[in-house]
Design goal:
The protein has helices at about 5-30, 130-135, 145-155; strands at about 35-45, 50, 55-60, 65-70, 75-80, 95-100, 105-110, 120-125. The chain has about 160 residues and is α/β, with parallel strands linked by helices. It starts with a helix and ends with a helix.
Length: about 160
Protein backbone atom coordinates (compact mmCIF):
# COMPACT_ATOMS: atom_id res chain seq x y z
CA UNK A 1 0.00 0.00 0.00
CA UNK A 2 1.25 3.46 -0.78
CA UNK A 3 0.29 6.61 1.13
CA UNK A 4 -2.06 7.76 -1.64
CA UNK A 5 -4.14 4.56 -1.33
CA UNK A 6 -4.36 5.03 2.45
CA UNK A 7 -5.51 8.67 2.12
CA UNK A 8 -8.07 7.70 -0.56
CA UNK A 9 -9.61 5.07 1.74
CA UNK A 10 -9.68 7.52 4.62
CA UNK A 11 -11.57 10.08 2.48
CA UNK A 12 -14.09 7.39 1.51
CA UNK A 13 -14.72 6.49 5.15
CA UNK A 14 -15.17 10.15 6.10
CA UNK A 15 -17.54 10.70 3.18
CA UNK A 16 -19.68 7.70 4.21
CA UNK A 17 -19.74 9.00 7.79
CA UNK A 18 -20.83 12.47 6.63
CA UNK A 19 -23.58 11.07 4.37
CA UNK A 20 -24.90 8.75 7.10
CA UNK A 21 -24.86 11.63 9.60
CA UNK A 22 -26.80 13.91 7.25
CA UNK A 23 -29.40 11.23 6.49
CA UNK A 24 -29.84 10.39 10.17
CA UNK A 25 -30.32 14.07 11.01
CA UNK A 26 -32.87 14.53 8.22
CA UNK A 27 -34.88 11.45 9.19
CA UNK A 28 -34.87 12.34 12.88
CA UNK A 29 -36.60 15.64 12.08
CA UNK A 30 -39.59 13.95 10.46
CA UNK A 31 -42.51 13.15 12.70
CA UNK A 32 -44.07 9.90 11.67
CA UNK A 33 -47.75 10.63 12.11
CA UNK A 34 -50.30 8.02 11.17
CA UNK A 35 -53.59 8.19 9.35
CA UNK A 36 -56.48 6.05 10.55
CA UNK A 37 -59.28 5.23 8.10
CA UNK A 38 -62.87 5.12 9.41
CA UNK A 39 -65.79 4.11 7.20
CA UNK A 40 -69.28 5.61 7.41
CA UNK A 41 -71.58 2.60 7.23
CA UNK A 42 -75.22 1.62 7.00
CA UNK A 43 -74.33 -1.73 8.60
CA UNK A 44 -71.12 -2.92 10.25
CA UNK A 45 -69.80 -6.51 10.25
CA UNK A 46 -71.06 -6.97 13.85
CA UNK A 47 -74.63 -6.25 12.72
CA UNK A 48 -74.83 -2.72 14.17
CA UNK A 49 -76.68 -0.32 11.88
CA UNK A 50 -75.97 3.34 11.10
CA UNK A 51 -72.44 3.32 12.51
CA UNK A 52 -68.86 4.27 11.87
CA UNK A 53 -66.44 1.39 11.43
CA UNK A 54 -64.92 2.24 14.86
CA UNK A 55 -66.88 3.53 17.84
CA UNK A 56 -63.75 4.65 19.69
CA UNK A 57 -60.61 5.67 17.82
CA UNK A 58 -57.46 6.02 19.94
CA UNK A 59 -54.71 7.99 18.23
CA UNK A 60 -51.54 9.89 19.09
CA UNK A 61 -51.23 13.68 19.02
CA UNK A 62 -50.47 14.71 15.44
CA UNK A 63 -52.23 11.71 13.87
CA UNK A 64 -55.04 12.09 11.34
CA UNK A 65 -58.31 10.32 10.73
CA UNK A 66 -59.82 10.04 7.28
CA UNK A 67 -63.54 9.26 7.14
CA UNK A 68 -64.73 7.57 3.98
CA UNK A 69 -68.38 7.70 2.83
CA UNK A 70 -68.46 3.95 2.20
CA UNK A 71 -72.27 4.05 2.23
CA UNK A 72 -74.25 7.09 1.07
CA UNK A 73 -76.14 9.54 3.29
CA UNK A 74 -73.56 10.04 6.06
CA UNK A 75 -71.23 12.79 7.28
CA UNK A 76 -69.00 13.77 10.21
CA UNK A 77 -70.00 16.56 12.61
CA UNK A 78 -67.95 17.25 15.75
CA UNK A 79 -70.11 18.27 18.69
CA UNK A 80 -67.56 18.19 21.51
CA UNK A 81 -63.85 18.27 22.21
CA UNK A 82 -61.21 19.52 24.63
CA UNK A 83 -61.70 22.98 26.14
CA UNK A 84 -60.36 25.73 23.92
CA UNK A 85 -60.33 23.57 20.80
CA UNK A 86 -62.08 25.00 17.76
CA UNK A 87 -64.22 22.15 16.39
CA UNK A 88 -63.92 21.51 12.65
CA UNK A 89 -66.92 22.40 10.50
CA UNK A 90 -69.21 19.52 9.65
CA UNK A 91 -68.52 17.65 6.47
CA UNK A 92 -70.96 17.46 3.61
CA UNK A 93 -73.05 14.35 3.06
CA UNK A 94 -71.20 11.65 1.11
CA UNK A 95 -67.92 13.59 1.39
CA UNK A 96 -64.53 12.22 2.41
CA UNK A 97 -63.01 14.25 5.24
CA UNK A 98 -59.59 14.15 6.89
CA UNK A 99 -58.72 15.82 10.20
CA UNK A 100 -55.40 16.04 12.04
CA UNK A 101 -55.64 16.10 15.83
CA UNK A 102 -53.04 18.31 17.51
CA UNK A 103 -54.74 18.73 20.90
CA UNK A 104 -55.01 15.82 23.36
CA UNK A 105 -58.42 14.90 24.73
CA UNK A 106 -61.75 13.25 23.97
CA UNK A 107 -63.75 14.31 20.92
CA UNK A 108 -67.37 13.39 20.15
CA UNK A 109 -68.63 13.32 16.60
CA UNK A 110 -71.93 12.35 15.02
CA UNK A 111 -73.54 11.71 11.67
CA UNK A 112 -75.92 14.66 11.48
CA UNK A 113 -78.89 12.78 9.92
CA UNK A 114 -78.43 9.62 12.01
CA UNK A 115 -77.28 10.77 15.46
CA UNK A 116 -80.71 9.99 16.93
CA UNK A 117 -80.23 6.43 15.63
CA UNK A 118 -76.97 6.22 17.57
CA UNK A 119 -74.48 7.02 14.80
CA UNK A 120 -71.99 8.67 17.13
CA UNK A 121 -68.36 7.93 17.98
CA UNK A 122 -65.39 9.13 20.01
CA UNK A 123 -61.79 10.00 19.25
CA UNK A 124 -59.32 9.82 22.14
CA UNK A 125 -56.13 11.71 21.36
CA UNK A 126 -52.92 11.08 23.29
CA UNK A 127 -54.62 8.83 25.90
CA UNK A 128 -55.93 12.05 27.51
CA UNK A 129 -59.43 11.53 28.95
CA UNK A 130 -59.40 14.59 31.22
CA UNK A 131 -62.45 16.07 29.44
CA UNK A 132 -64.39 12.78 29.58
CA UNK A 133 -66.97 14.17 32.05
CA UNK A 134 -67.64 17.24 29.90
CA UNK A 135 -68.19 15.01 26.85
CA UNK A 136 -70.51 12.72 28.85
CA UNK A 137 -72.75 15.73 29.64
CA UNK A 138 -73.32 16.67 25.99
CA UNK A 139 -76.96 16.31 25.02
CA UNK A 140 -77.74 13.35 22.78
CA UNK A 141 -81.19 12.20 21.71
CA UNK A 142 -82.70 8.76 21.08
CA UNK A 143 -80.22 5.88 20.81
CA UNK A 144 -77.38 8.37 20.79
CA UNK A 145 -77.94 9.07 24.50
CA UNK A 146 -77.55 5.42 25.53
CA UNK A 147 -74.62 4.86 23.16
CA UNK A 148 -72.72 7.90 24.47
CA UNK A 149 -72.96 6.53 28.01
CA UNK A 150 -71.70 3.11 26.83
CA UNK A 151 -68.79 4.67 24.94
CA UNK A 152 -67.78 6.88 27.87
CA UNK A 153 -67.80 3.80 30.12
CA UNK A 154 -65.33 2.11 27.75
CA UNK A 155 -62.63 4.79 27.86
Amino acid sequence: YNSYHYIGNKKGIYMKYIIISILTFMLSNFTFSKELIIDMLNKRDDGEKMVYSQDIAKIAVGDSIKWLPTNKGHNVEFVGGPEGYSLPKKSGLNKEVSITFDKPGVYLYVCTPHKVMGMIALVVVGDDISNKDAISKLKMMGRGKKKLKALIDQI
